[in-house]
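Section 5.1 Outputs to date
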Amino acid sequence: MNDWRGFAEQMASLARDLLAQESLNDTLERITASATELVEDCDAAGILVLRGGQVQSLAPTEQVVVDSDDLQGRLGEGPCLDAARSSSGERQFRIADFTDEAERWPRYVPEARKLNLGSMMGFLLFTEDEDLGALDLYSYRPGAFSAADETAGWLLASHAAVAFSSARTHAQLQEAIGTRHTIGEAMGILMGRHRLTEDQAFATLRRYSQDNNVKLRDVAARVCERGGPP
């Protein structure tokens, strides 16, 4: 990473590009693709998140990312998993050489060698309010990442965390608006067909949701699809 001015210009362009993405998935795919473009020797990248204690791979650029994440989830150890957990207080992990570094993750590293991985870096994606997961960068070459690459990775992760958080908030808002619209439409159907008041229509939807352990928005969607009670 010798041309820092050029890299800074690329990062500024990326920041604008991330804000222009239309969906959360598009944003995440742009983040991981940028890692392979902006960090030298980065052959593959992905985002590891923990949901309900389970490992998930988001926007992987290569199958090896999914394989590595699955391996860490199955073994319960690994650098990306540690970064996502952030329980140790560390926000960056690095395996300089998979052929020579097995002390910290004694079960993961030998298995990762079988994936032809040479080196990797993991960065916690975080904002002031939340931890989002880990941005993981892989190379097939041992000793591929320099200190400058590590700095570049940190800068990319910082931009990525803000974009990830913003895109997720927007997606949640859009989902909430869509849910409210669907519930309103379902209530209108029940009010019109069964001469219910607004409160009675909502109570009918909520009662069915509770009695059948189905989310309220899914009950409303069924009413809209069928033109009547589910």
